[in-house]
Amino acid sequence: MNDQANSVDERYATTPATLTSWSRQDTTWMLGLFGTAIGAGTLFLPINAGLGGFWPLLILALLAFPMTFFAHRGLTRFVLSGREGSDITDVVEEHFGIKAGALITLLYFFAIFPILLIYSVALTNTVSSFMEHQLHIMPPPRAILAFVLILGLLAVVRCGEQVIVKAMSLMVYPFIVALLFLAVYLIPHWTGGILSTASEVPAPSALLSTLWLAIPVMVFSFNHSPIISAFAVDQKRQYGAHADERSSQILSRAHLLMVVMVLFFVFSCVLTLSPAQLAEAKAQNLSILSYLANHFDNPTIAFAAPLIAFVAIAKSFLGHYIGASEGLKGLVAKTGRRPAPKTLDRMTAAFMLVVCWIVATLNPSILGMIEALGGPVIACILFLMPMYAIRKVPAMAKYRGQASNVFVTAVGLVAITAVVYSLIP
């Protein structure tokens, strides 16, 4: 196996030209990463981030790129440190042993799968509301609507990972255009909004407290860890010894696109709405699009908002499906059973369809709590596990001593403690 891996590395090492030119596949992955990260959470980010006031929002904006880029680069490097073709569950077992591998695989699955359930519910609610209020037609029974929507997305999934990534990258274009349209549309309506709090410089203790609780919002709004494992495996397959360099280039461009687009949208929203209006939107449990549609009573926004939400949720569903299915397959493998790959794919798809359909039909109110409970696990996997591996795993020793490692560890601890604190009554 080692000889085979070495021969692969040597083969790629002799073709450095593959790294000098940016390929269409690199662009597809860049947009796929963007598509997984920028989803329904983005539509709540202006409310959650803007409520803290101007100065905390400005600091979060400056921290957004390093927080997200260094963390996801660390997780990518972790997956790349394993054997050829190993996904994140295999790499954990390779570095930390069978028991640790089984535990991390279990946590990885239960961190991502609840988010998939949340997207199933949100997708059903969005389409049902759109049919009723914008198209003025009676939506079919919830069970039928949920089944058709989830089955449609799983039909894309059945076409394979590359088709999923391509579909997500295609869906990114209208989403970027829509975000830009809304952000630019709001410019004439800027009233200063959050700037009214700029003259009120908070006390250091209050500022730190606000940042402490707001950092998880920013971290999880840009999170695309569910697709990182598949991304790293594909990079190693394509670029071999150069995979770290090329994947870092793709990640940096993807995160730059994320930060610029989303922060422009966030600042346009918070310059339009006052802090009191942001608080009202939070109290009503509305996304920023729904609140703006009601605020302006604009038919264009009222019609476009659910369509944008549908695209955002659908592409995030596809990205999270990759991670959830990978975790489920890893759990099956840890039981010692080795079904044929096609059989395992069908079993995974059937399980996802049934559970997502049941939850979307029942529309339970506890999904927000499930997502919050999954937050610390995602932070552990995304921030802390790769940094621990850098300290302990020989294959990652070359990354030791970098200042970014300390930064990522600190942000991970802040995110975990803040999420846990927010769950305490």
Automatic annotation (TrEMBL):
It comes from the Bacteria. GO terms for cellular component: plasma membrane. The lineage of its organism: Bacteria, Pseudomonadati, Pseudomonadota, Gammaproteobacteria, Pseudomonadales. The chain crosses the membrane at residues 29-47, 53-75, 96-122, 142-160, 172-191, 211-233, 254-273, 301-322, 343-360, 366-385, 406-424. It is found in: Cell inner membrane. The keyword Glycoprotein does not apply. This is HAAAP family serine/threonine permease. Keywords: Amino-acid transport, Cell inner membrane, Cell membrane, Membrane, Symport, Transmembrane, Transmembrane helix, Transport.
